[in-house]
Amino acid sequence: MQQDPSSQEYADEVARLRASESDSDAELLENLGYKPVLHRSYTLFHNFSTTFAALYFVGGVRVTFSTGISAGGNLAYWTSYIVTCVFTFITAAVIAEICSSLPLAGSIYLWAAEAGGPRFGRFFGFIVAWWSTTAWTTFCASNTQGAVNYLLAEIVVFDVDYPSDSDHIKYRAVQWAVTAFMLAVACIVNLLPPKFFSWIFYASSSMVVLDFILNMIWLPIGVAQTYGFRTAHEAFMTTYNGTGAPAGWNWCLSYLATAGILIGFDASGNIQHCGIPSLAQGHRG
């Protein structure tokens, strides 16, 4: 017989199950030699939105679009994207299994250390930690630089009387100043108390969804009212070599664009050890 969700018996049963999950989590961490000290308050949505916002596929397309089109053209772009998605799904599944099995603070470099065993564990952990720290640091800087480049591109769109050439000292000064400011904001956000991060997750995910919806609505309208849509053959089957490299190598460079779009999907694994109240649910992000 199904219990009434509003009844006291139902509330007591939910509390009992949650307590049981917490005890199981603590026992699992103790067996792994780790004492839990982090406050687990993130929900499943928070875990998901971490990856969703870090991935930001719409912005990734904008930043890497010119690379994808130049390296192989339309045909290379969409076919390489399919291949990239397949291997990304495999990688995401592997990370999900690992972070569920080793839900410890440290995430990716700790997993590498465990995989290396007693002999190579420290070395593997150091290499991955160095790589991960460098990668995410440069991602933050490059993302702010890309955002500023698109922001300053509005100078041409709105015909503002200000230098728009990147070789001009005034343009470069404004570019540097705005980029430094946005990078500082991105860094300072990390100093906020963890309780504010949930609002950052909500805001970030909402902006990504809004950006996607606007692109799906206004971009086709703008195309239809200006230069018009291309034929199916032009849109999907044409190739282009804008790099000057041999055809095969030129095509391979398209993976730089498609892989760049899907960067960031491991973010949930990086925070699941300090987020989801039940570690057994960590992999679902």
UniProtKB/TrEMBL annotation:
Domain of life: Eukaryota
GO MF: transmembrane transporter activity
Keywords, alphabetical: Membrane, Transmembrane, Transmembrane helix, Transport
Transmembrane segments: 44-63, 75-96, 173-193, 199-221
Pfam families according to UniProt: AA_permease_2
InterPro entries listed in its UniProt record: AA/rel_permease1
Subcellular localization: Membrane
Cellular compartments per GO CC: membrane
Bilayer disposition of the protein: Multi-pass membrane protein
UniProt protein name: Amino acid transporter
Annotated organism of origin: Aureobasidium pullulans (Black yeast)
